[in-house]
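Quick one:
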Amino acid sequence: MKILVTGGAGYIGSVVSECLLDGGHQVVVVDNLSTGHRQAIEARADFVEADLLDTPAISDVLSAGIDAVCHFAAFSQVGESVTDPLKYYRNNITGAVSLLRAMKSSGVDRFLFSSTAAVYGEPENVPITEDARLDPVNPYGNTKLAVERLLADCSSAWGLKSLSLRYFNAAGASEARGEDHRPESHLIPLVLDAAAGRRGELTVFGNDYPTPDGTCVRDYIHVKDLATAHILGLEKLIEGKTGALNLGNGQGFSVLEVIDAAAEVTGMEVPYQIGDRRVGDPAILVASSEKAEEILGWKQEYADIRKIIADAFSWRDRNPAGYSD
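Output:
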């Protein structure tokens, strides 16, 4: 298939592009490079530097025989979404509307959406299943849920086939591509940078939660396992499958467990201090991915937190400054 990957210069989009190409697919990457990195784009992919809000430019790309779209182009910093919601609504929702308008006019009707566990908000039960209450607690989660609902409406209106893949915490790296967010907010790269002395002491936000060691528990999934799920999802779109699926590890790891695993993997101490809780941080967020396993036939290959950290460390060790562009 010929796949359009929006946001293919970003962390997950670039790894998915790599895996699609390795699987024999053609890939066209569209990215405005506002947060992505040109060096992360696969040399084997065609690249178009464009903004999703430029509907005519996106229509031109789609008119070249695109079979399906993998949509990753969204802003994703929760804190920033709270302070600047207009930025998030404009990019994440209006951008998706522009993309879907171009798809409709071009006759492209398969859409794989990069969604998020943030659509659930504060969970009532864990592990979280797809039928849990959808109640985001920040603008970022609101924009993702709005797009999920938009996709359902487009399905009813003009037969769009879509799958929304709700990620929990993507981590790890491929051989060539890893995390380089600016600013970085994800725990594993922050832990690795603290161990390597590239940043100061790590702050652990609270150690009095109702968890075994008092720190928050989160679900970490290897980015290559995410990529596998996307490839399987594209196959299911051809069969007409639609809806939303969780993609997580299925087991949780506390902040201190991640720190201890990183120390074991790297052989380096991770300096940290205990800080106050952050407002709105749930004690435990863990996914049930049983539905994805059943529908996609998906199985994780890299569930061990030490493997996830080892791959992230290996990439970060080779690229201490991240992408240099």
